[in-house]
Amino acid sequence: MNKSIGIAYAIIGSIFWGTSGTVAEYLFARQHLDPLWLVGIRLFGAGLMLLLWYAIKHGHKIFSIWHNKNNIIKLVLFAFLGMLPSQLTYFMAIKYGNAPTATVLQFLGPLFIIGYLTVFQRVLPRRIDIFSVLLALAGTFLLVTNGQVTHLVLGPAALFWGIAAGLSQASYTLLPRRLLSLFNDRLVVGWAMLLSSLPFTGVITTHSWSSLDVMTIAGIGFIVIFGTMFAYLFYLKSLKSLLPATTGMLSAFEPLTATVLSVTFLSTPFSLIQAMGGILVLSTTVIQALPSKKYNKKVEE
Question: In whole angstroms, how far apart are CA 214 and each of 42, 209, 222?
Fold first, then answer.
């Protein structure tokens, strides 16, 4: 795969993610859909389709990831410490806030990776890392307060789930690296999604589809197929021809898409000050993409 195709995959995947965030905001605000139910449906539906897609071509190899104890442990950790929390926290952040702020706060993930390297792998933060932290804190402050110290634009619940989404995004980035080097991306992501949907079984089975209108069903279908299955596949495919740092920068199309669509179609309030805060948070992704052999080596480990 050449670089231009990789760039296209990264951009399209990010646009799908951003659009799914706006669709979720619509379903929560206008259709009063339960976020736990939507997360469960999203994970189960996309995971099942990915595995069926893989099985059509590879047949019995669909269970190959379960033949080794170490791989099973890695898969379970990815499912319940990476996939599940990243999906749940993101949708909860949208439920209690809105798609633009939830999507931007996800980009706090690199800061948690810095913290992980500092605490667990004893890699002292670079000066540029400290600068990234300060930028992210300043950006988050503007997002939450709109520049007014005594007034919160974003409620405590939305802020909590937004920061949790950033932490979960860091886990999602770090956990599957070894598995993806050994197995097909559809196999890894499909099983991770299917496993992580299990805790939502009770919620999924007790909700009636008969009460849903056509627009709601169409929105759910878009989130499952395009905002989940294809978005994840395109992101992983882009990594085959692009550096992770490049893919990370191109993923800025996600909050851009969510903001434009939410403000345009849902009339979601998003001020210029908040936009500046979002730019500060997103700029940390660009800064973290600057080359550093020691740092990149530790992340890969």
Answer: 17, 11, 12
The whole-model pTM stands at 0.84
Contact yes or no for 27/252 (Cβ under 8 A) = no
Q: Are the beta carbons of 283 and 135 closer than 8 angstroms?
A: yes
Query: Mean pLDDT throughout 37-62?
Result: 93
Give SS3 for 194: helix
Closest CA to 111 of 80, 94, 135: 135
User: DSSP readout, 68-86?
Assistant: SHHHHHHHHHIIIIIIHHH
Question: Residue 126's pLDDT is what?
Answer: 76
User: How many Å apart are CA 3 and CA 279, to the nearest integer?
Assistant: 26
Cα angle 187-188-191, degrees, rounded to a multiple of 5? 80
Distance separating alpha carbons of residues 162 and 156, to the nearest angstrom:
10
Residue 226 makes CB contacts below 8 A (sequence gap 6+) with 16, 19, 20
pLDDT at residue 149, rounded to an integer = 65
- Of 219-228, 243-252, 277-286, which one has max mean pLDDT? 219-228
* Distance, CA of 70 to CA of 64 (rounded, Å): 13
